[in-house]
Design goal:
Blueprint lengths: L2 E5 L3 E3 L7 E2 L3 E5 L2 E6 L11 E4 L4 E4 L1 E6 L6 E2 L4 E2 L1 H6 L3 E6 L12 H17 L6 E3 L11 H9 L4 E5 L7 H13 L3 E4 L14 H7 L3 E2 L11 H10 L3 E5 L4 H13 L6 E4 L12 H12 L4 H7 L2 H6 L15 E5 L9 H6 L5 E7 L2 E5 L12 E2 L1
Helix pairs in contact: 2-3, 4-5, 5-6, 6-7, 7-8, 8-9
Length: 386
C-alpha cells in the first residue's frame, strides 16, 4: 500500500463551501485516496513511504477548470499551441472539463460523426493525462438528427457531458429540450452557452432561452466573450437552481458584479469557475486562479469560498469523486503560499490582496506531478520532501 503523509500544514481549505476551512495540520494519503484529515497527533502511529513537510503553507483541493475546449491530445488548433493543459496544471488545475471539442478541424456534424468524436475524446483522455492532469473529455455537441438511442450509446461508452448547447446546429429550446431530457436520463451533466456569440456559428442566448432548455449549468454568465445583461443574470439567480459559471475569458466587470450578487443572494454553492480557454483571448494557464483573485479581492467572497467554487462546487455538479479534502476522495491537492514580495502572509491573505499565490507543489492521486510551478510567482515558503 503506497502512502504519503502531508504534515505541518498551516491551513487546509476543504473544498466544501459550507465549511471551507478544516481544523488540522495533516493529511494521510493511501493508494491515491485521502485516508485521514486532521491533527497529526490524532492519527495514531503512521508509517508513510513519503512525508511532505508543508512548512506552514496552505493545502487546497486541486482546482477544477469547469470550462475548457480541448480537442485531442495536449494541443489546441484554436491557438495552434501545444502543452496548454500541462501549463494549467502548473496553475494548480488538476482537472479540466471539456465544454465541447468544437475547435477540432473538420469537426463532424452528422449524428454518426458527433457520436464518434465524443466517444473518441472521452476514451482518449481517460488514457492520457498531460503532465498528470485529469481531463474529462468528450463533451457531445448537440447537432440536429441525434436521437435518444444515440445518447444511450454514448453514455454506455463513457460520455457523461453535454457540451455548450448552442455551439452546434441545435440552438433553440424547442430543438434542445428533448435532447436535454435524453441526456439527463443517461446521467449526463449538461452545459448551455449563455450570452453573446463566441465563435462563428454560435448565437446569442438569453436567460429565458436557458431556463426553457433547463441545463445543469448556465455557462460563462459573465461572457464568453460577451455577457448577458446584469438583469439577465438576476433572472437566472431568482428563477432557476442551475449552476452559474464565471470564466476568465469573459467580461471582468460583470464577473465582479455577478460575484457580489451571488454573495448577496446566498447562492455561492451554485457558482463554479472556469477558464473558457483556448478562445479568441488566448490560453491563460493561471485563468482559474485569476478569477479566484478577482472574486476574493473585489467582492465580499472570501478566498476560501472562491477556492471552493473552483473545486468542490464543480466536482459536485459534475459528479466527480474529488474536489473536496475528505476521507475516500481522490488525493488531488495543491500546496500554495503567498508569492515572494506579497503583502499577504499566507496564500489566502495574498489572494485577498489580489496576488496570485505561489503554487509550490501539485499532487494527483497522491503523486507529486509538479514540484514548484513554472507559471506562478515563487512561493515564499516551500514544502520539504522527507
Amino acid at each position: 500500500m503506497s502512502s504519503v503523509l502531508i504534515n505541518n500544514i498551516g491551513t487546509i481549505v476543504s473544498g466544501d463551501i459550507q465549511h471551507p476551512i478544516l481544523e488540522g495540520n495533516a493529511i494521510l494519503i493511501q493508494d491515491g485516496k485521502i485516508a485521514k484529515v486532521g491533527k497529526l497527533e490524532d492519527f495514531g502511529q503512521v508509517t508513510a513511504e513519503t512525508t511532505i513537510d508543508c512548512n506552514g503553507t496552505t493545502v487546497t483541493p486541486g482546482l477544477i477548470d469547469s470550462h475548457c475546449h480541448t480537442i485531442l491530445g495536449d494541443y489546441t488548433s484554436r491557438q495552434n499551441q501545444s502543452g496548454f493543459i500541462e501549463s494549467e496544471l502548473h496553475g494548480g488545475v488538476t482537472t479540466m472539463i471539456s465544454a465541447g471539442e468544437v475547435h477540432l478541424k473538420g469537426r463532424p456534424k452528422d449524428p454518426a460523426g458527433v457520436k464518434a468524436l465524443a466517444i473518441l475524446a472521452s476514451k482518449s483522455f481517460a488514457n492520457f493525462r498531460p503532465g498528470g492532469a485529469k481531463v474529462e473529455g468528450g463533451a457531445v455537441i448537440l447537432e440536429k438528427g441525434l436521437v435518444r438511442e444515440d445518447f444511450m450509446e454514448m453514455a454506455k461508452e463513457g460520455v457523461h457531458i453535454v457540451g455548450e448547447i448552442g455551439l452546434g446546429s441545435v440552438k433553440t429550446p424547442e430543438d434542445a429540450s428533448p435532447m436535454v431530457k435524453w441526456a439527463r436520463e443517461c446521467n449526463m451533466t449538461i452545459m448551455m452557452h449563455t450570452g453573446g456569440t463566441s465563435i462563428p456559428g454560435s448565437s446569442t442566448v438569453t436567460a429565458e432561452m436557458v431556463m426553457q432548455t433547463n441545463p445543469d449549468i448556465a455557462s460563462h454568465v459573465n461572457g464568453g466573450p460577451t455577457a448577458v445583461s446584469f438583469e439577465e443574470i438576476e433572472k437566472l439567480v431568482e428563477n432557476s437552481d442551475m449552476a452559474l459559471e464565471i470564466v476568465h475569458c469573459g467580461n471582468p466587470l460583470i464577473a465582479v458584479k455577478a460575484g457580489k450578487l451571488f454573495a448577496e443572494k446566498d447562492v455561492l454553492d451554485r457558482v463554479i469557475i472556469g477558464n473558457d480557454a483556448p478562445s479568441g483571448t488566448g490560453v491563460v494557464p493561471l485563468g482559474v486562479l485569476r478569477v479566484i483573485n478577482h472574486l476574493a479581492s473585489l467582492t465580499s467572497i472570501t478566498p476560501e469560498q472562491a477556492i471552493c467554487m473552483a473545486t468542490g462546487n464543480t466536482a459536485r455538479i459534475h459528479k466527480l469523486h474529488r474536489g473536496v479534502i475528505e476521507a475516500g476522495k481522490e488525493a488531488d491537492l495543491v500546496i500554495m503560499d503567498s508569492p515572494m514580495g506579497s503583502v499577504g502572509k499566507d496564500a489566502l491573505s495574498a489572494i485577498k490582496a489580489g496576488d496570485v499565490p505561489g503554487v509550490a507543489m501539485v499532487l494527483v492521486d497522491g503523486k507529486i506531478v509538479v514540484n514548484t510551478s513554472r507559471n506562478t510567482p515563487p512561493a515564499t515558503r516551500k514544502p520539504i520532501i522527507l
